[in-house]
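Q: what sequence does this backbone want?
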């Protein structure tokens, strides 16, 4: 089906974060370390690690940084990070779901709470907004890298085991069941498609428009959360522009 391009919004945020590339690499290194530490340093036998490494390459993370994180995981480092989620509402009642990797839960909880309260939001209890989001596999194919039309793409996505295809002027966006994500990704690559993005993400069941007079506060809240060293992902139910 056709629809608004989530990829367009992702690209916009990535461009805005170019100045923060060092911080992004730091967060990706943490993800690579934990994935390799828990599932082994070989991406061919560790789907989570392969996914994070693909994400790192998509963000133009240098190979030396990736290798450094892998070697750290193979070594005797006892460094450990806990996966924690936070839920709340941004100005205008927009649901926000935050994923963090932290070695200090108190520090992270305090920083997230401050980000919400200083920017007109409110931090909620566990489960307060999680039910509004669905975990999905999300794959993007830039239309400039393939000659396939929408009909051919839909056939290949269905054959690969994907759930949904959304088409925009610049990209094919594929959504999958999270358990089928690796299978669909591998099948599309085997079919010759070059993937611009492949990750597990949280998709809101419904979206909420951000009131015009709350947009600055909303953007400031999202920026404050994304700027935190311990925060890995920020998902919102904001209606996309």
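A:
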């Amino acid at each position: 089906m056709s629809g608004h391009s989530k990829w367009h919004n992702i690209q916009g945020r990535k461009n805005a974060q170019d100045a923060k590339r060092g911080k992004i690499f730091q967060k990706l290194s943490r993800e690579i370390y934990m994935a390799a530490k828990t599932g082994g340093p070989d991406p061919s036998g560790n789907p989570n690690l392969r996914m994070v490494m693909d994400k790192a390459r998509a963000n133009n993370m240098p190979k030396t940084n990736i290798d450094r994180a892998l070697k750290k995981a193979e070594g005797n480092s006892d460094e450990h990070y806990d996966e924690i989620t936070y839920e709340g509402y941004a100005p205008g009642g927009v649901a926000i779901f935050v994923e963090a990797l932290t070695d200090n839960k108190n520090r992270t909880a305090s920083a997230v709470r401050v980000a919400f309260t200083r920017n007109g939001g409110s931090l909620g209890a566990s489960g307060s907004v999680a039910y509004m989001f669905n975990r999905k596999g999300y794959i993007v194919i830039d239309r400039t890298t393939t000659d396939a039309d929408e009909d051919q793409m839909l056939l290949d996505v269905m054959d690969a085991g994907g759930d949904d295809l959304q088409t925009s002027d610049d990209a094919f966006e594929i959504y999958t069941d999270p358990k089928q994500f690796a299978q669909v990704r591998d099948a599309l690559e085997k079919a010759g498609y070059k993937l611009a993005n492949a990750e597990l993400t949280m998709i809101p069941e419904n979206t909420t428009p951000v009131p015009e007079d709350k947009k600055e506060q909303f953007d400031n809240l999202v920026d404050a959360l994304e700027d935190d060293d311990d925060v890995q992902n920020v998902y919102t139910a904001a209606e996309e522009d």
